Amino acid sequence: MRVVTAEQMRTLDRQATEIYGIPSILLMENAARGLVDRIESTWGAAAGRRVVIVAGRGNNGGDGLAAARHFRMRGADVVVYLFAAPERVSGDAGISLEIWRRTGGALQIVGAFDWAQFAADLRQADFVIDALFGTGLSHSVEGDVARAIDLVNTMRQERGKHGRVVAIDIPSGISADTGAICGVAVQADDTMALGLPKRGHFVGAGLEHRGSLSAIDIGLPDALVRQTPLEMAVTLTTRDAMAGCLPTRPRDAHKGTFGHLLVIAGSTGKSGAAALASRAALRAGCGLVTCAIPKSCVGMFTALPEVMTLPLPETDVGSLSPDAYDGLRVAMTGKAAVAIGPGLSREKETADLICRWVAETALPMVIDADALNALASAPSVLSERRGPTILTPHPGEMARFVGVSVEFVQNNRFAVAGDVAKRCNAIVVLKGAHTLVASPTGDIAINDTGCPGMATAGAGDVLTGMIGSLLAQRMIPWDAARLGIWLHGMAGDASGHACGLIASDLVDNLPRAIEMLGGDRNVKSGETL
After folding, report:
1. Mean pLDDT score of the chain
2. 222 and 274 housed in the same domain
């Protein structure tokens, strides 16, 4: 599924009318009917429910006014609060307003209604429909509208689980492109995107303010959505998108069939990172894993008999030393891919080793953590690499790599990820809630799995091992990154809890995540991958 900017969505709406002859008022009607259909299918019949529509003067308000009519036709008790002078409501929104008034719909107009009554109606509503601003908001929300949003949020907190705030398209006050708050914003329980999801649903405050997210079909022709070229094409990585991506498991396979991954990781005090990455790699399906690690850290692997180890020379502080270079070169023989970085430390001698070795290695490689920190001072190493590269920074590592603040990264996630992917000629995985995957060609994918409990030590090391494993199984880097992230998030979701999750839980849940994706399709019934 595509994820669009506000301007891209306007283009699609306009082309639906200009090229396909679909009246824009019909798109509004489809949006309204689809919204009410979704609410009824999720929470039951509208009949007898109290519904408050909080509407602005633009098309988002028009969607709300049309929805008011559909709610009332299905037996709901509906009142509309209009935050604009009626004469300023024009176009399709004006048509919806006129129909509502001619059919006797209850209408309260800003400047003439009682704010205490407004608060009382919000408090008693089963559904508050936010239709104040849509994707076209470009200014700070102030005045009566800001007051209304504050009341909606306050009444939502007072009601608790009684009643829901449902935002049409995007919570009012949230930028559709950046997810930033424009002064003040509605805190929604549910957001129903019209046509296609917007970028602002997945980043910044938009992620917190949207609640659950679903998309409403407004009648855009499939051919229009598929064929319209979009600069920086952004898609949502869903289960359907990933189904069929898992490497096949032939019945006559042996461990060599699924590739041998070299993990380069660990230092004194951080050998657990190496162990997590190695174990996750095996759980993700590669046949063999060798972990190259400082010799004093080998003891960590006594509890991991499935992982082969390569003890290497170390510095005085227990990180890989430059003397490990020859051992690493020899270790490349027979390997299908490399995962490098977890727990390596930021020692200068180790960083110099990493830069030299990465520059001279053509194997497919996933680079994370301290390897990324080392390469921040030598980005040309990445752009000049001969082999496929996947970078997996969290926002702090990306900030160091680019030389900006973490806040800048988080406020510009799409742009930063896309720019680094092009500059380094690499697949870039910018981790976080709804992790982004950016390609050098300008494509970006947004992951739809994962939970807050995954913000825990070692979760990134697990992801590094998983993506490395998929590379070793000869997946193309774009698919390896997207599938690894999707399974990683699903392993977190499968834990069933957000608090107390640890990285080892993710590894333990990987077989279940793979099964949920259909990982048993190439084995006999009753067997697992």
Report:
1. 94
2. no
